[in-house]
Structures are given as structure tokens and as C-alpha cells.
Amino acid sequence: MYLLYHYNSMFRLLLISFLLVAVTGAAMGQQVQLRGIITDASDGQPVEGANVVLLDEDQVFVHGAATDRNGLYRIANISPGNFTIRISYIGYVTHIASIEITDEPSQIFNTRMEEDSGMLDEVVITVRSQAARMTAGHQRVSPVDLQRVVTPAAGGDMASYLQALPGVVAAGDRGGQLFVRGGTPSENLALIDGLTIYQPFHIVGFFSAFPEELLASADFYAGGFETRYSGRMSSVLDVRMRDGNFHNTTGSGSISPFLAEVLVEGPIQRGHSSWIGSYRRSQIEHTSPLFLGQEQPIHFESQFAKVTQLSNDGTRCSAMGMHTYDRGKLDTDFGNNFWWRNLVIGGGCTHIATDPDLFVDFNSGISHLSNGMGGSRTTNLSSSITKLSTELNVSQFVNDIELRYGINFHMKWLDYDIEEIFRMPSSDLDVLLGLGSYIESAIPFGNITIRPGTAFTFYTDYFGLTAEPRLRFTWQPYGSDYQEFNAAVGYYSQSITGISDLRDVGSAFLAWMPAPDGKQMRSLHYLLGWQQRLARGLQLSVEGYHKRVTNLPVTLWSTIAEFTTDLALADGNVYGADIRFEYGTHRFYSFIGYGYSWIEYESAQRSFSEWFGEPIQRYHPAHDRRHQFNAMATLDVSDYTFSIGWQLGTGLPFTRQMGFDSMLRFDRGLPNVRSNYGTPRVILDQPFAGRTPMFHRMDVSVNRTLRMGTTRMEVQLGVINSYDRTNLFYYDVYTQRRINQLPFAPYGSFKMVL
Fold first, then answer.
1. Were 566 and a residue from 194, 556, 649, 672 both cysteine, which residue would form a disulfide, CB within 3.0 to 4.6 Å?
2. Does residue 283 register a pLDDT over 50?
3. Are the C-beta atoms of 452 and 432 separated by less than 8 Å?
């Protein structure tokens, strides 16, 4: 009833908003507009955030706009005449040209910007800060952001960066599992060039399938995400991998005790098509006895390739492939072996059209994940999921109102065998055929922008039709983004889920299956935030959030510590807030973030009545980190870059031991209690009533850049866990053993760019 009441209220609100769109669009006449795409002349990459200004014949400002992640800009309501167009961005030569605006409703002006060689050394520091630019859960991430986080390799990585943000919890430095604002890893949607990648984070927690060297840009939604994203109910990471260089053949290679990497790129047809390829492979399995003093049986690797074609009419088409493989033990002595493999193959096109006035984005491909677990206590746990998808997205302007709509088709094959741990029969194959669509708009009212929308999903079996209304809102009271109030409310559903044994964090196995009992997982998001520029280079953002979730599959609690368990359903509430300070100057950058989170599950289980006299228990799950503090800073001095990062987090919940007993078997007759003392057992307390010790760690590094003609070399020295804090990874209740995270870990890296 709770969800139904809010669902109906939101649906009425969004219906009124769409009527406003229709009435406003019909009442306003068509105006002349100018659009185009701005790219980098050296490598053909879109230039995001470039300022495009129109000046009249007296060189007086008339209109202005900024480019988006596609390098696309739009200036509307232009009167015909002669103008000067000026395009500028830090690190590039300002482009100035004369342009005639006719009475054609839509006109295009594209250009390529040349790098300013005199400013290349300043570009990294002066790029606009992003970490404190939080708009209703949404943050734009650039390669520069990844550079600022200490990572034990020759470049930054998305995994290290996300863990430096408030609201993102990692159980440890192994496992590849991230929890975002109370959600579980299977509730996070990760996309690579528009296609799903199911497990993008490597088994070593510093690394992912998205390194700095391959990233063009990314949109990270910690909640309240837009209607074009469906199928998950916690967060979205939408990554765009960069194209290869359209003009020159270049390459780079790097090595560190953790990772070795080779990247090559170049033109196919100069200025019109390009290719890029990357190979990454972990080294920790071979180097850990030397620099850690103990063997780490962990391995990961990834391969990526992409081909891109540009045409003169503004169409950009690409095809890409990504493969990753991980294997290893989280408990290096007695633990299970985990492995997973991703394969993503697909392509797509973007096109800007003048008649009708549309921006079209199309992609299609196949995504596959297979994973398994086996070892000391069980074997033959396996799971795989394959998704075939096709998606068409359209952006269209009706005067100042932007309409976005799209359709998608997807088919999923899910195969899993988890009966040895969850007392469930293995399934040969589940097939889900789904159709989806969405529509949303951006309606400006002066300094206010309202973004209503609804996503629709239909499954031929299991779940039927689902509608998910959502609303995003921004208000800039003084007409600039120096001060901005933002909010979001949305309804989200999830039809497939990744089942995992979350009784402790020592697992990296997910079994993907349809939501149990035919009940979709559902969530309501409420977000409220404010961001403020306090001074030049100093930015503050504050955001509060609440999530109400239902039909979460959880492991069944038992007072006896058993390896085999079962599933139950739970509802949950999540409350929290993020506070971010960011300061940047020509040579110095710093970020401080604080996250508060309160997560509570409510579940009805028979064992609760037997032990506690009540069928329903409320508890905080294993990823409920109440307080989290992150700080980082970088300083450029000549050719040196000094970096430091510090993390602190309060303890995570775990289920304590209440005592011990012995089990005697009577199925083969009466045992001799004088000689047979039975099998020892662990008796557990209430679920997750204890807390692990506090976690904190400091990482430091120094980087030296050397240039010899066109060759650049980067040498880095650093330390992970610089003051050798003994941080707990997890506690094994079966063997009464403590497993710790990485100790003091020095490293060095070398990178050469040709």
C-alpha cells in the first residue's frame, strides 16, 4: 500500500507535466536554432564543456551554450543575420568564425578545435572540478578525476575513484563488490558504450574494466536516475570509452607490481576513422611474495578494442569488444576459489539531423557473464547470464523544451546451479523476453527546469507490464550554476537479481536469476540537494536521500552456523546524506567527502518465531556503514605530482557467535557419549547484531614526468596503507579465523607514451 499510494500520486504529477509540454509546444512558434558538434582536431574526441558564444556585428553577446558529453551544443531563438561564433575551452585555441544565420528552422555548424601547446601543462589542473557537482544523485566523471586518486598502477581507475566518494561502500580491497547508498552489487547497472557489463570490477578492488587511459567520460547516478535507465533500482554507471586517434598512430605501455598494460591506437582513414586496442594483465600473483611478504593467488585481465567511423554529416558509428577474466581466493589460505568472465560485443551510431530536428543514438550488442565458486567447502556453484539488446534513443527540441524518448528490445538467458548452498534445484535455463520504452522532457521555467518522465517495461512471462514514473527538478535562484537546488523522486523496479550469500562479505559469487516468487524488487527514491560555489575554486554540495525497497531476496537466518541456507524476502529503508567540499587552483586540488547512511531490513522468517517469539525481525545488513569519510589532495610542483588519499569508515555489521555445542547423530543408532563427543557447532546470535572494527587507510604517491622529444615517461613511487593499519576483511565463523586486508604495500610504476 505504501508503494501503491506514492506510485499513484507520482503518476498524476507526471501526467500533468506532460500535458504542460504539449500545451506549451503547441502555443509557441518555431524558432531558428543553431546546432553542431565540437571535436578535438588531434584525435577526433568530442569536446565536452566547450563554450559556444554568438556575437552580433558589433561584437556584443547575443546567445551562448555549452557542449554536452557528445560534443553537441544547441542555441535556440536566433533571429536571422550575420554573427561571429566564438568557441573556447581550456587547453584549446579559441575558434572564431563568421556565420550567417538564415531563416531555415535548424542549421548546423561543426568544428574541430586545435590544442594550445602553450597550455598543455596546465590543462589537468584547470579542468573544471566535478566531484562536488552533484545534481540529484548525478555526477559527471572525466579521466582527470581518475588521475587524482592514488592507484597502485601507472594510471587512475574508475574502481578506485568510486570508492573515494561518499555513499559508496566497498567491503574490502578484494572481491570487486560495491554497495551504493544501501543497494547491493546486483542492484547497480553498469554500461559500456550503452551495453550492459554485469561484473565490471576486478577481484583486486583498485581496478575495473574502466581505466583512465580508455575513459572518455562517465555518468554516475547514485540514485534518482533518468528514465532511459531501467532494470536496476540502486545506481547507474554509464561509461563511454574513447575512440582511437584519428590522425596519428600512438601507443603506451606501463608496468607495476599490480598491473601491466599496453595500449595502441591510430587512424584507419586519417581524419575519418580510427582504431584503439588495449591489453591489461595483473602481476600481483607473481610479485606479492616479494613486496607483500605473502602470496596473493589472485589474477585478472582485460582486453578492449574499438573501431570508429566519422562522416561529414555528423554521423559517428563505432564497434567495440570488451573481455575480462578474474579468478582467485579472497581467503588466501583456506577459502573458496572464485572466477568470473565478461564478454561484451556490439556497436552503435549517433546522428544529428536537421529535418526533422533530431539527435539519434542507436546501439545493439550482446553481453555475457559467467561465474563460479568452488574450493574447500563446496563445488559446482555456477551461474551465467547472456543479454541480447537493441536500443534507440532520440532527443528532440520543441522550442526550449527538450523531449527524450526511446525504445529497446532485450532477451536474457539465465542459467544457474546453486542448490549446494541455497537448497534450491538447479535450473537448466530461464529465458526472459522484454520490451521497453521511455519518454521524458526538460521543461524550463525561467531559472527552474522540470524533468518529468516515465519508463515502461513489458516481459512476456513472469512480470507483465511495469510503469516507472520519475521526476527530476533543478532551480538556479540567481540564474547561474554557482547556486543550485535540485531534487528527484522516482519509482524503480528490477526483474532479475544476483543472488549471493551475504551472511558475510567473504563471497564474490552472484547467481543471476529472475526475481524469486515472481515478485519484482521495487524501490522509491527521494533526493534533495544543494550545491554552492563558496569562492573561486571552492565548491560545496549537500544531498540527502531516502529509499524504500521491497521484495529483496536475503539469506535465511539460522541460529546454527550452516554452510547451506535458503532464501527469504525482506523490505528495507535507507536514509542518508552526502557532504562534499572541493577546492582546486592552478597547481593544487583537494576533495573532502562525508557520507552518513542508515540501512534497515525487515524480514519475516519462521526461525525468528522459534528463537525470538516474533515472526518479524529488523536488522542492519552487512553493508550498513554508518559513517564514511574520504579525503584526497594532489599538488603539482614542476614535473612532480604529489598525491595523498585517506579513507575512514565505521564498522560493518556481522552476526556474532552466541556459543558452541556438539551435535550427535542418532540415525545409525545410539552414540556412545563417553567416546563420541559429537560434531562441534557454532551457535549464532541475532542477525548482524555486531559491528566489525573501524576501517582507515592512507595511500600516498609521487609521480615524475620526463619528456624526450615526442616521448613521455612517467615514473611513480607509492605506498598503499602507508602506516600499516591492520584492517579486517572478514571473520570466518566456521574456522574462527580473521582475514585481513592488504598490509603496508610499497610499489613503483613505469609508463612510456610514444
1. 556
2. yes
3. no
